[in-house]
Amino acid sequence: MYDVIIIGAGVSGCSVARELSAYNRKVAVLERASDICEGTSKANSGIVHAGYDAKPGTMKAAMNLRGNRLMESLSRQLDFPFRQNGSLVLCFSEKDRDKLEELLEKGTKNGVEGLRIVEKEELRELEPNLSGQAVAALYAPTGGIVCPFGLTIALAENASVNGVEFHLDTEVKEIKKLEEGYRIETSKGVFSSRTVVNAAGVYADTFHNMVSGRKLHIVPRKGEYCLCDKTVGNYVSHTIFQLPTEYGKGVLVTPTVHGNLMLGPTAVDIEEKEGVNTTGQGLGDVLERSGLSIQKVPAGKVITSFAGLRAHEDGGDFVIGESEDAKGFIDVAGIESPGLTSAPAIGEYVAELIQKIIPAEKKEDFIEKRNGIPSMAEADKEKRQELISQNPAYANVICRCELVTEGEIMDAIHRPLGATSLDGVKRRTRAGMGRCQSGFCSTKAVEILARELGKDIGDITKAGGKSVFLTGRNKESDE
Fold first, then answer.
1. What are residue 161's phi and psi, to 5 degrees?
2. Labelling 393: which of 70, 177, 192, 260 has CA 20 to 30 A away?
3. How far is residue 405 from each of residues 230, 296, 378, 448, measured CA to CA in Å?
4. What is the pLDDT of residue 479?
């Protein structure tokens, strides 16, 4: 029997896993996908929110502020990209200035530091490419941007090297309460655990309702995005939000930590928990509404689009805690924005709850730090020569757009919880994330995966399951 089983290997589940890995307990993560970071955590804005938006006194407000304050030190410990670029919330009409003041007041009550109102003249100095419609803005210097894949993978790898078991391709089917603990039926057999952490994203209500009479209801809230080429990555330097107006909540415009420009998201409640398709209307809305914030939206520089789902719970707040009528069952549910920012704090909070239920000693040999995959694109000449001398594969460029080498892909495959699919390589190395969107490098990456994993090339997938590239042969060779 396990001490703790975590359902879901998104950023919240992996943060909980990493915190728990510092203690002497038997912990496992169950994930239905073939890789970590396959759900909500892979398709979001990558924003580290300052914390002015959440209602004071809520779980969202507390987790947001704490998560924001933890992010920089965590990025140094676990070696993932993070930058504190600051954010601006634009006001488009003098009659809406009171709403800007309300945000300032909320943020101040929440404990956000450095908030202030920026007037039109200074605003143009900060961001020359803003549209002429903005009359003022709320400036939050503690806002930032992060790589959502980098954060989630770093947490998972560190948890893994510290003893947490990750069971991928393991879909939870049923959870039953026992006299002591829980019986979890999955596609890969039965697991038993003294406690369960429910970090299942849009499915968290499904699992909660299996064991509790106090029902949760989560609505999948779809957001569509456009990602632009790096040639316009410096179009803005801050993350640009819109103050809610008669036009709706608006979309954001932000640089990414990797040098792209991102626009979005929309916000549409849907019924389908797997509804991550993009639509012409949704992407059109993103481009149109971005025009409120910036002038001359670079629509011609869009290199890809995508959609993600946010887990919106009916109460509107994060649901984090032990279920009243299911002892030992801890929900991490309704984790929508600012969930990515809040993840480090959520991990801390849940670890404290577990400590009260199952006290344990801290490990003396806990490995606190993790080194990421060396990047040839970011390395200086001396570092590049050092890597190539250690492994000549670092001299073989596979992805020209992002300057990703064979050595980096090999590292991505062989490190803890290594990549087994093309998307897994993509998220760990950025191979295929450039302008051509895998048009040139995908075949070579698939060949490397097959070789390094000792598999037939026909067994390599895009994202696990049935997403194969090759379905058969059109002819057999005589050789």
1. -65, -20
2. 260
3. 19, 35, 12, 11
4. 58
**Dihedral over alpha carbons 197, 203, 208, 209 (to 10 degrees):** -170
> Do 299 and 432 fall into the same domain?
no
Query: What is the per-residue pLDDT for 477?
Result: 67
Residue 156 and residue 22 share a domain: yes
pLDDT tens figures, 39-73: 999 999 999 999 999 999 999 999 999 999 999 99
Helix residue ranges, H only, 49-165: 59-78, 97-110, 120-126, 148-161
- Identify the domain containing residue 266 by its residue range: 87-141+219-309
Q: Are residues 269 and 401 in the same domain?
A: no
Residue type, 344: P
Residues 279 and 223 in one domain: yes
CA-nearest of 71, 93, 96, 94 to 82 is 71
Residue range 219-246, pLDDT digits in tens: 999 999 999 999 999 999 999 999 975 4
Domain tally, the chain: 3
What are the beta bridge partners of residue 221? Answer: 269, 310
Do both 415 and 448 map to the same domain?
A: yes
- 70 and 166 part of one domain: yes
Which residues lie below 8 Å from residue 252, measured CB to CB, with a gap of 6+? 45, 47, 239, 240, 241, 242, 262, 263, 264, 265, 293
Residues 349, 299, single domain; the answer is no
Residue 427: burial class (beta carbons within 10 Å; 0-12, 13-18, 19+) = buried
> Is 470 part of a structural domain of the chain?
no
257 Cβ contact partners less than 8 Å away, ≥ 6 residues apart? 46, 81, 82, 83, 145, 146, 147, 150
Q: Which residues in the chain come in under a pLDDT of 70?
A: 245-249, 477-479
Query: Residue 367 in 3-state DSSP?
Result: coil
Round to whole Å and give the CA distance between 387 and 411: 12
Return d(Cα 396, Cα 407) in angstroms, integer.
8
341 closest CA partner among 41, 43, 47:
47
Catalytic residue numbers read 49
Whole-angstrom Cα distance, residue 384 to residue 387? 5
CB 258 within 8 A of CB 430: yes
Q: What was the pLDDT predicted at 475?
A: 78
In angstroms, rounded to a whole number, what is the distance separating the alpha carbons of residues 461 and 453?
A: 12
pLDDT at 470: 82
How far apart CA 119 and CA 364 sit, in angstroms, is 53
- What CATH number has the domain bearing residue 256? 3.30.9.10
Other Cβ atoms less than 10 A from the Cβ of 244: the count is 13
> pTM for the full model?
0.97
**pLDDT value at position 247?**
47
Say which amino acid occupies 158.
Answer: N
Q: How far apart are CA 158 and CA 77, in angstroms?
A: 10
